[in-house]
């Protein structure tokens, strides 16, 4: 480890999102790693090569680079796009309102909704393999023509054919399970940073020693979700085959066992996971043994089934299963909205909650919508390929020789709802931005008038540019109505499943209401457009994943999404990408503890790095905190995290954070920064007035006589090049230890 003699004070820089290099963090071309590994490490300028950019005299500069946890491996980064619905569902619970979650109801609802996403994933695989290929395509000569890879399946009876094709959903479930377990190995394994007592409340706080350790919960949920997925497949398989070699009674008994196994998985999701590892292993061992035996019997029953040829229409039971899952998601989303709103009204808050306190159901609706888009795209694109480019529906069926190739009506409604959500969401966004533009410009005009009172006429264009930049930086505060509109649209879209339950699709409904059939044809083409729009969006995501595999630059862009979405532990959906803070926070705490043994440490966090820095300080023991200070800049702690995650980063937590380090805290912010802002609003009770330091940006509108261009508008980066940064480091260092 490199330590510069005589420099005991350390400035530890923690970067923000997008996985920047250690050279950029230190603003130095030659760096060396002094701790950590290739996944996440601590770096300093190489001895003898000079000091880091923006360094303060007498203070060594060190950088913690954690970006490779989300943007390092090409395969991991690309594959995470497939896990997007699971990530969004896991994120939903963390947006809950502040206050006690009585009976753990919000967690229960979020876990059940996550379980429906696993069922949706398996049903998508079942729809492609068992329904479209095994049941609807193979029996028809026109569909299997010129397809030798499908023609051989026609020689198999329906039961054995479906049993054989059931291997594909099992493999798909295994792939998703493997992605989550393999990519988590670089993140996990870091124990609690201090021997702090665990909270007795069911709602953990950031100060709990084991807050970031989600390995036990994730392992439990992973096994339960695999059982749910296999149970969904077993029920779909048994519903699609006729009673065979073991007789009708045995077939019904197996179906009851499969449904019971599926119900057992739902019950285990509803109940809190066992705290004892021994008890958890005992339950899972019994559950897995039952699942394996039931699956083998289901596959055997299908293989021995009578050689009954496939009939016309969809796989028996598949339409109802798809509709049932969507109906369950709609019901859970409505209940989740009501419970969240009730909790928000009962919670005490220092400011008006963002999104009306409905962040949890909004994120849950996003997860359901993305999952439906993925499912509809997969099913419809396969159906489109199998029927040689035609897109059938109840009004425009395929010729008898080709086969029906008709996906579930629920996916038609999902496509129509998706197109409506895009159009209405775009309209609401446009209206919101137009209505708020005047207000944002008035605010920006007051700021530039205060900062630049006497501006020469020659610099008027620069003044307008600064004013527009400040106005645009306030856009994030105006997106609340857009997200609320999305929640309403998503809920209404799920409500259309009521028509699916009675077997009425969009075109059939229009045909009954229109009478002459013209409205049905028009709506059929509109629904087709919805399918294609959703498909194009999903295909763009797949292209982005492919680019992430080939390009390091694209991986960094994709990693921005994961930096924001995988900060929190996986306590809802185990197939979500792993939580990088499970390694970053304990590792930072361990490094800071070691550095404070030799001198004061200033944790310098930029953007998302300031959130990691705050979480780290909440895990440091009191003996270490006396020598630790905090410098944040471009920080979303108040502007985003305190408002979106009030239960964890609310005003009470931020005040506790400042008190732990004796208010040795400085926060630099600019009006032109679209992400960062002040931590404590003016007049906050019990807050020293000098925590937030506002920096004028740009520093001047006029060209310095020694320069050739005016000072740039710096916005979100950089901060360490300004004198206020070095002054803050010097002040915090002198006050520490």
* Structural class category: alpha/beta
Largest sheet: 8 strands, mixed
Report helical residue fraction.
55-70%
Cross-sheet strand order for the largest sheet: 2-3-4-1-5-6-7-8
Radius of gyration (CA) equals 29 Å
Q: What's the rounded overall pLDDT mean?
A: 81
The fraction of residues in strands falls at 5-15%
Distance between the termini: 23 Å
Instruction: Provide a count of the helices.
Output: 28
Please provide the count of β strands. Answer: 8
Identify low-pLDDT runs.
1-7, 192-202
Name the shape in a single word. Answer: globular
Description:
With 737 residues, the protein is an alpha/beta fold. Helix content is 57%, strand content 6%. The protein has 28 helices and eight strands. The chain has helices at residues 22-26, 68-71, 74-79, 84-92, 105-137, 141-144, 148-151, 158-165, 167-183, 215-240, 247-270, 277-303, 318-346, 359-386, 409-451, 460-473, 480-495, 497-501, 506-514, 518-550, 552-565, 581-596, 608-617, 622-625, 637-644, 646-649, 651-660, 723-735, and strands spanning 9-14, 31-36, 41-45, 59-65, 601-606, 628-633, 665-670, 692-695. The protein has an eight-stranded mixed sheet with strand order 2-3-4-1-5-6-7-8, with helices on both faces. Strand 2 and strand 3 (41-45) form a beta hairpin. Helix 5 (105-137) packs antiparallel against helix 13 (318-346). The longest helix has 43 residues, at 409-451. The two termini are 23 Å apart. Residues 1-7 and 192-202 have low confidence and may be disordered.
């Amino acid at each position: 480890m490199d330590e510069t003699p005589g420099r005991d004070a350390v400035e530890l820089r923690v970067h923000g999102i997008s996985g920047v290099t250690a050279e950029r963090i230190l603003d130095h071309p030659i760096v060396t790693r002094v701790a950590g590994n290739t996944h996440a490490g601590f770096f300093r300028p190489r001895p003898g090569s000079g000091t880091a950019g923006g360094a303060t005299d007498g203070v060594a500069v060190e950088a913690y680079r954690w970006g490779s946890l989300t943007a390092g491996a090409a395969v991991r980064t690309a594959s995470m796009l497939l896990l997007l619905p699971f990530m969004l569902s896991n994120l939903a619970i963390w947006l809950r309102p502040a206050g006690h979650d009585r009976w753990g109801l919000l967690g229960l609802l979020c876990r059940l909704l996550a379980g429906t996403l696993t069922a949706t994933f398996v049903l998508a695989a079942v729809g492609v393999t068992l329904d479209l290929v095994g049941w609807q395509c193979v029996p028809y000569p026109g569909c299997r023509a010129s397809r030798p890879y499908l023609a051989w399946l026609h020689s198999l009876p329906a039961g054995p054919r479906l049993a054989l094709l059931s291997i594909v959903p099992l493999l798909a479930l295994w792939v998703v399970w493997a992605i989550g377990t393999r990519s988590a190995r670089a993140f996990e394994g870091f124990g609690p940073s201090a021997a702090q007592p665990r909270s007795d409340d069911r709602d953990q706080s950031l100060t709990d020693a084991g807050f970031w350790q989600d390995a036990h919960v994730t392992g439990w949920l992973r096994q339960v979700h695999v059982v749910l997925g296999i149970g969904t497949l077993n029920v779909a398989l048994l519903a699609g085959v006729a009673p065979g070699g073991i007789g009708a009674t045995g077939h019904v008994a197996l179906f009851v066992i499969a449904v019971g196994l599926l119900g057992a998985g739902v019950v285990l999701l509803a109940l809190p996971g066992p705290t004892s590892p021994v008890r958890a292993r005992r339950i899972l061992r019994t559950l897995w043994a039952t699942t394996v035996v039931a699956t083998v019997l289901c596959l055997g029953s299908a293989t021995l089934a009578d050689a009954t040829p496939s009939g016309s229409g969809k796989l028996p039971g598949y339409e109802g299963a798809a509709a049932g899952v969507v109906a369950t998601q709609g019901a859970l989303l409505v209940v989740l909205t009501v419970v969240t709103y009730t909790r928000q009204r009962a919670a005490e808050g220092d400011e008006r909650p963002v999104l009306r306190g409905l962040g949890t159901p909004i994120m849950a609706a996003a997860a359901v919508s993305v999952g439906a888009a993925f499912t509809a795209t997969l099913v419809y694109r396969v159906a489109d390929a199998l029927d040689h480019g035609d897109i059938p529906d109840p009004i425009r069926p395929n010729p008898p020789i080709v086969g029906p190739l008709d996906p579930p009506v629920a996916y038609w409604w999902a496509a129509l709802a998706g197109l409506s959500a895009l159009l209405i969401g775009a309209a609401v966004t446009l209206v919101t931005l137009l209505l708020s533009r005047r207000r944002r410009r008035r605010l920006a005009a007051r700021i530039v008038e205060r900062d630049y009172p006497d501006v020469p006429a020659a610099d008027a264009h620069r003044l307008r540019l600064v004013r527009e930049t400040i106005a645009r930086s306030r856009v994030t505060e105006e997106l609340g109505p857009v997200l609320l509109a999305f929640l309403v649209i998503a809920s209404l879209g799920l409500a259309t499943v009521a028509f699916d339950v009675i077997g009425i699709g969009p075109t059939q409904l229009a045909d009954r209401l229109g009478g002459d059939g013209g409205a049905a044809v028009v709506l059929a083409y509109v629904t087709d457009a919805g399918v294609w729009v959703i498909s194009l969006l999903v295909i763009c995501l797949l292209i982005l994943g492919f680019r992430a595999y080939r390009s390091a630059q694209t991986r960094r862009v994709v990693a921005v999404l994961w930096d924001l979405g995988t900060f929190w532990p996986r306590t809802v959906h185990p197939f979500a990408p792993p939580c990088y803070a499970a390694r970053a926070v304990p590792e930072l705490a361990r490094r800071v503890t070691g550095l404070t043994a030799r001198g004061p440490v200033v944790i310098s966090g930029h953007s998302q790095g300031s959130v990691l820095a705050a979480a780290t300080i909440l895990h440091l023991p009191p003996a270490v905190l006396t020598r630790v200070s905090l410098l944040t800049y471009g920080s979303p702690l108040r502007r985003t995290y305190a408002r979106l995650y009030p239960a964890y980063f609310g005003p009470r937590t931020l005040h506790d954070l400042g008190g732990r380090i004796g208010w040795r805290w400085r926060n630099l912010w600019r009006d032109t920064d679209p992400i960062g802002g002040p931590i404590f609003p003016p007049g906050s009770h019990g807050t020293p007035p000098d925590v937030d330091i506002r920096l004028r940006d740009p520093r001047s509108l006029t060209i310095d006589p020694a320069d050739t261009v005016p000072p740039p508008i710096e916005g979100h980066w950089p901060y360490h090049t300004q004198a206020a940064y070095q002054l803050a480091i010097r002040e915090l260092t002198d006050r520490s230890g």
